[in-house]
Amino acid sequence: xxxxxxxxxxxxxxxxxxxxxxxxxxxxLSDIARDAGVQRGSLYNAFGSKEAxxxxxxERYAGDYLAALQKALGTGSLRKRLTAFFDLTITNFRAGxxxxxxxxxxxxxxxxxAEGEGLDEDARQAFAGLISRITALVQDTLSAGAKHGxxxxxxxxxxxxxxxxxxxxxxxERAFGDEPQLRKVAAHTIDLVLGRKGG
Amino acid sequence: xxxxxxxxxxxxxxxxxxxxxxxxxxxxLSDIARDAGVQRGSLYNAFGSKEAxxxxxxERYAGDYLAALQKALGTGSLRKRLTAFFDLTITNFRAGxxxxxxxxxxxxxxxxxAEGEGLDEDARQAFAGLISRITALVQDTLSAGAKHGxxxxxxxxxxxxxxxxxxxxxxxERAFGDEPQLRKVAAHTIDLVLGRKGG
DNA sequence: CAAAATATTTGACACGGTGTCAATAACATG
DNA sequence: CATGTTATTGACACCGTGTCAAATATTTTG
Lengths: 199, 199
Fold this sequence. Notes:
Two copies of one chain form a homodimer.
Chain A (H helix, E strand, L loop, with lengths): L7 H15 L6 H8 L3 H8 L2 H23 L5 H16 L9 H8 L10 H27 L7 H22 L2 H16 L5
Helix pairs in contact in A: 1-2, 1-4, 4-7, 5-8, 5-9, 6-7, 7-8, 8-9
The first copy, chain A, binds a DNA duplex (30 and 30 nucleotides) through helix 3.
């Protein structure tokens, strides 16, 4: 066996950075190969295809991001937790110069996900999976809040509503790039869900 | 002057249908040319570039869609208006087989909109413009509702929240394709904004 | 230590996409 | 009918994905 001449994880990192910044279709394997100091053919040999490379890079990101969200949702009053959740969400959208947006939302809308066109069902499942897991995390947080009397209502419905808002925020970020606006919507959403003054 | 051999508007219609179904990057001018029975070169001559063709096709759609929304928001109680608004929004996402999603949200996330990459600033403005105009429409509706005592709170904040939810719904549609879920979120949002039983 | 086995790298290739250009064709107008 | 103007057409350059066979560098085996 001839050993690989590049760092598998390092390439994944570099690739994801570019996919995130320029979109999946807007990033060529030549770009990634140049940036990583690897031949294009080696990428095909190691990952199979652009799609497979993206998926691996995305899964890597998704794991890290989910862990960060879990941490943000882990301490303080319910209001504090939700605030930290939205804060991390928005901060993540606005990372980099120029802001790179939400990789999940961008990927999901870019790759079609419909039968026949765009990336495989695999990609859609990866995106949908992260969204589902985020929703579950928020729902658990709300359920716990309900036990402490910090929240009344359906945790499932509220969690889905909150996550829907975060997806909407990802879109607004792309449209207007107005971070204060995003934070206003986040604050308003927390107020609506928790009751104007509650917490 | 030699006259054009194809119908300008017809081509715009055909092009938008394909952009909507397969995404902008996923649609080639060859596809459109074949479908429209026109030579690819003629499209470049008539529209300049793929980007310009998309923009014209999109503006056409945006005008029609905005008019339909305005109509939906035009009659009945505030709750009825908002219900009609969400209904039209979701129905629009789920049009076609397979569902084509929200062209605005898909285009916005697909085309990057960030400096340097993806489509021009022009495209971002077109998408952002439609979102802004929708927000203004909803805001006006809420303001009118406030006069009739059907709504209390900030129309601007509520309108932005509602439109954010619709953008989020566009994303969820792509992720899960679960129309009942979308309608639940919509109903829940109306309840939150108007008060559980109000209207 | 030599040689076989095996995986990686490399460069050439086919194919399809965007966009440009010059040559050609079709009409309007004088 | 001659001329100017615009639309059409086909060839081209360039870049993208993906495939393949040949060359290369290790590890394992004799």
